[in-house]
Amino acid sequence: SALPKSPQRANPNILITGTPGTGKTTTAEMVALAAELKKITVGDLVKERKLHDGYNDDMDTYWLNEDKVVDEMEAMMADGGMCIDFHTCGFFPERWFDLVVVLRADTKKVYDRLEARGYKQNKISENVECEIMQVVLDEAHESYKPELILELQSNTVEDMEENVEKIARRVDEFRRKHAQ
Ligand code: DAT
Predict the structure, then answer these.
(1) Strands, E assignment, the chain
(2) What is the band of 2 on the pLDDT scale with cuts at 50, 70, 90?
(3) What is the Å distance from ligand 1's center to 103 Cα?
(4) Domains, the chain
(5) Which DSSP helix (H) or strand (E) runs through 141?
(6) ipTM of the predicted structure?
(7) CA 108–ligand 1 middle distance (angstroms)
(8) 3 band by pLDDT with thresholds 50, 70 and 90
(9) Which residues does the annotation place in the binding site for ATP?
(10) Where is this region: Disordered (predicted)?
Protein backbone atom coordinates (compact mmCIF):
# COMPACT_ATOMS: atom_id res chain seq x y z
CA SER A 1 0.00 0.00 0.00
CA ALA A 2 1.05 3.59 -0.54
CA LEU A 3 0.72 4.61 3.08
CA PRO A 4 3.75 4.35 5.36
CA LYS A 5 3.43 2.59 8.70
CA SER A 6 2.61 4.74 11.76
CA PRO A 7 2.19 2.13 14.47
CA GLN A 8 1.37 4.72 17.12
CA ARG A 9 -2.08 5.46 15.70
CA ALA A 10 -4.93 3.27 14.50
CA ASN A 11 -6.56 6.15 12.62
CA PRO A 12 -4.72 8.34 10.14
CA ASN A 13 -4.26 12.10 10.27
CA ILE A 14 -4.97 13.78 6.97
CA LEU A 15 -3.91 17.23 5.82
CA ILE A 16 -5.87 18.88 3.02
CA THR A 17 -3.93 21.82 1.66
CA GLY A 18 -4.01 24.06 -1.41
CA THR A 19 -4.47 27.66 -2.52
CA PRO A 20 -7.55 29.38 -1.06
CA GLY A 21 -10.52 28.60 -3.30
CA THR A 22 -9.35 25.14 -4.35
CA GLY A 23 -12.00 23.50 -2.17
CA LYS A 24 -10.15 22.48 0.99
CA THR A 25 -12.84 23.26 3.54
CA THR A 26 -15.65 21.68 1.53
CA THR A 27 -13.58 18.60 0.74
CA ALA A 28 -12.38 18.24 4.35
CA GLU A 29 -15.95 18.37 5.62
CA MET A 30 -17.03 15.65 3.19
CA VAL A 31 -13.98 13.51 3.99
CA ALA A 32 -14.60 13.85 7.73
CA LEU A 33 -18.19 12.67 7.23
CA ALA A 34 -17.36 9.87 4.79
CA ALA A 35 -14.39 8.50 6.73
CA GLU A 36 -15.48 9.34 10.28
CA LEU A 37 -12.60 11.66 11.05
CA LYS A 38 -12.65 14.76 13.22
CA LYS A 39 -12.28 17.97 11.20
CA ILE A 40 -10.32 21.06 12.10
CA THR A 41 -10.27 24.09 9.85
CA VAL A 42 -6.97 25.57 11.03
CA GLY A 43 -7.97 29.07 9.85
CA ASP A 44 -10.93 29.04 12.26
CA LEU A 45 -8.75 27.71 15.09
CA VAL A 46 -6.26 30.55 14.50
CA LYS A 47 -9.04 33.11 14.89
CA GLU A 48 -10.88 31.46 17.80
CA ARG A 49 -7.79 30.76 19.90
CA LYS A 50 -5.85 33.84 18.78
CA LEU A 51 -2.91 31.90 17.36
CA HIS A 52 -1.77 34.98 15.45
CA ASP A 53 0.18 38.21 15.86
CA GLY A 54 -2.56 40.62 14.88
CA TYR A 55 -4.32 41.49 11.65
CA ASN A 56 -2.73 42.26 8.29
CA ASP A 57 -5.04 44.94 6.91
CA ASP A 58 -3.42 44.99 3.46
CA MET A 59 -4.09 41.31 2.87
CA ASP A 60 -7.23 41.01 5.04
CA THR A 61 -5.79 38.12 6.98
CA TYR A 62 -4.14 37.34 10.31
CA TRP A 63 -0.37 37.18 10.76
CA LEU A 64 -0.01 33.52 11.53
CA ASN A 65 1.97 32.52 14.62
CA GLU A 66 3.19 29.09 13.50
CA ASP A 67 4.65 28.10 16.89
CA LYS A 68 1.36 28.82 18.64
CA VAL A 69 -0.55 26.80 16.04
CA VAL A 70 1.75 23.78 16.40
CA ASP A 71 1.67 23.94 20.22
CA GLU A 72 -2.11 24.20 20.24
CA MET A 73 -2.60 21.31 17.82
CA GLU A 74 -0.02 18.85 19.16
CA ALA A 75 -2.38 17.12 21.61
CA MET A 76 -5.22 17.04 19.07
CA MET A 77 -3.05 15.20 16.55
CA ALA A 78 -1.53 12.69 18.99
CA ASP A 79 -4.19 9.98 18.75
CA GLY A 80 -4.86 10.22 15.00
CA GLY A 81 -8.24 10.42 13.29
CA MET A 82 -7.99 14.10 12.35
CA CYS A 83 -8.77 15.72 9.02
CA ILE A 84 -7.34 19.22 8.95
CA ASP A 85 -7.33 21.87 6.25
CA PHE A 86 -5.09 24.87 5.77
CA HIS A 87 -3.69 26.92 2.88
CA THR A 88 -0.08 26.44 3.89
CA CYS A 89 1.57 23.22 5.03
CA GLY A 90 5.34 23.55 5.51
CA PHE A 91 5.38 24.42 9.21
CA PHE A 92 3.42 21.39 10.46
CA PRO A 93 5.59 18.55 11.83
CA GLU A 94 5.94 15.85 9.16
CA ARG A 95 5.25 13.13 11.74
CA TRP A 96 1.66 14.36 12.20
CA PHE A 97 0.38 13.21 8.83
CA ASP A 98 -0.31 9.93 7.07
CA LEU A 99 -1.65 11.61 3.95
CA VAL A 100 -1.15 15.13 2.54
CA VAL A 101 -3.71 16.06 -0.11
CA VAL A 102 -2.86 19.05 -2.32
CA LEU A 103 -5.97 20.34 -4.07
CA ARG A 104 -5.49 22.09 -7.41
CA ALA A 105 -7.90 24.13 -9.52
CA ASP A 106 -7.87 26.04 -12.80
CA THR A 107 -6.99 29.73 -12.58
CA LYS A 108 -10.50 30.83 -13.54
CA LYS A 109 -12.09 28.59 -10.90
CA VAL A 110 -9.85 30.03 -8.18
CA TYR A 111 -10.56 33.57 -9.42
CA ASP A 112 -14.35 33.11 -9.54
CA ARG A 113 -14.57 31.36 -6.18
CA LEU A 114 -12.52 34.05 -4.40
CA GLU A 115 -14.44 36.85 -6.09
CA ALA A 116 -17.71 35.22 -4.98
CA ARG A 117 -16.25 35.17 -1.46
CA GLY A 118 -15.79 38.95 -1.66
CA TYR A 119 -11.99 38.97 -1.52
CA LYS A 120 -10.22 42.23 -2.44
CA GLN A 121 -8.60 42.34 -5.88
CA ASN A 122 -5.01 42.18 -4.55
CA LYS A 123 -5.86 39.14 -2.45
CA ILE A 124 -7.50 37.42 -5.43
CA SER A 125 -4.46 38.16 -7.62
CA GLU A 126 -2.01 36.90 -5.02
CA ASN A 127 -3.88 33.63 -4.67
CA VAL A 128 -4.37 33.13 -8.41
CA GLU A 129 -0.62 33.62 -8.86
CA CYS A 130 0.06 31.21 -6.01
CA GLU A 131 -2.01 28.56 -7.81
CA ILE A 132 -0.34 29.21 -11.18
CA MET A 133 3.11 28.92 -9.56
CA GLN A 134 1.99 25.79 -7.65
CA VAL A 135 3.43 27.27 -4.46
CA VAL A 136 1.55 24.92 -2.12
CA LEU A 137 2.45 21.80 -4.12
CA ASP A 138 6.14 22.77 -4.01
CA GLU A 139 5.89 23.48 -0.30
CA ALA A 140 4.31 20.05 0.27
CA HIS A 141 7.15 18.38 -1.65
CA GLU A 142 9.74 20.28 0.40
CA SER A 143 8.11 19.20 3.64
CA TYR A 144 6.71 15.68 3.14
CA LYS A 145 7.85 12.40 1.64
CA PRO A 146 6.55 11.95 -1.91
CA GLU A 147 4.57 8.81 -1.00
CA LEU A 148 2.55 10.88 1.47
CA ILE A 149 1.44 13.45 -1.12
CA LEU A 150 -1.68 13.14 -3.25
CA GLU A 151 -2.29 15.94 -5.78
CA LEU A 152 -5.94 16.15 -6.86
CA GLN A 153 -7.80 18.40 -9.31
CA SER A 154 -10.80 20.18 -7.80
CA ASN A 155 -12.61 21.94 -10.63
CA THR A 156 -16.02 20.32 -10.65
CA VAL A 157 -18.47 18.76 -8.24
CA GLU A 158 -17.64 15.39 -9.85
CA ASP A 159 -13.94 16.00 -9.08
CA MET A 160 -14.83 16.68 -5.49
CA GLU A 161 -16.90 13.52 -5.14
CA GLU A 162 -14.12 11.44 -6.68
CA ASN A 163 -11.54 13.09 -4.44
CA VAL A 164 -13.56 12.34 -1.31
CA GLU A 165 -13.91 8.69 -2.36
CA LYS A 166 -10.19 8.42 -3.09
CA ILE A 167 -9.23 9.90 0.28
CA ALA A 168 -11.79 7.74 2.13
CA ARG A 169 -10.29 4.64 0.47
CA ARG A 170 -6.84 5.63 1.71
CA VAL A 171 -8.27 6.00 5.22
CA ASP A 172 -9.78 2.48 5.02
CA GLU A 173 -6.49 1.12 3.75
CA PHE A 174 -4.64 2.72 6.66
CA ARG A 175 -7.12 1.34 9.20
CA ARG A 176 -6.89 -2.19 7.79
CA LYS A 177 -3.11 -2.03 7.85
CA HIS A 178 -2.99 -0.76 11.42
CA ALA A 179 -5.77 -2.94 12.88
CA GLN A 180 -4.60 -5.15 15.74
P1 DAT B 1 -10.93 26.63 0.33
O2 DAT B 1 -11.23 26.05 1.70
O3 DAT B 1 -9.82 25.92 -0.35
O4 DAT B 1 -10.74 28.11 0.34
P5 DAT B 1 -13.74 26.11 -0.20
O6 DAT B 1 -13.96 24.70 0.18
O7 DAT B 1 -14.18 27.16 0.75
O8 DAT B 1 -12.20 26.34 -0.59
O9 DAT B 1 -14.41 26.31 -1.62
C10 DAT B 1 -14.58 27.60 -2.18
C11 DAT B 1 -15.87 27.65 -2.96
O12 DAT B 1 -15.75 26.90 -4.15
C13 DAT B 1 -17.07 27.05 -2.22
O14 DAT B 1 -18.19 27.83 -2.58
C15 DAT B 1 -17.21 25.68 -2.79
C16 DAT B 1 -16.66 25.82 -4.19
N17 DAT B 1 -15.90 24.64 -4.65
C18 DAT B 1 -14.75 24.18 -4.15
N19 DAT B 1 -14.32 23.11 -4.80
C20 DAT B 1 -15.21 22.87 -5.77
C21 DAT B 1 -15.32 21.88 -6.80
N22 DAT B 1 -14.40 20.90 -6.97
N23 DAT B 1 -16.39 21.93 -7.62
C24 DAT B 1 -17.32 22.89 -7.46
N25 DAT B 1 -17.27 23.86 -6.53
C26 DAT B 1 -16.24 23.84 -5.68
Answers:
(1) 14-17, 38-41, 52-56, 61-64, 82-86, 99-104, 149-153
(2) low
(3) 10
(4) 14-171 (3.40.50.300)
(5) helix 135-143
(6) 0.98
(7) 13
(8) low
(9) 21, 23-26, 117
(10) 1-22
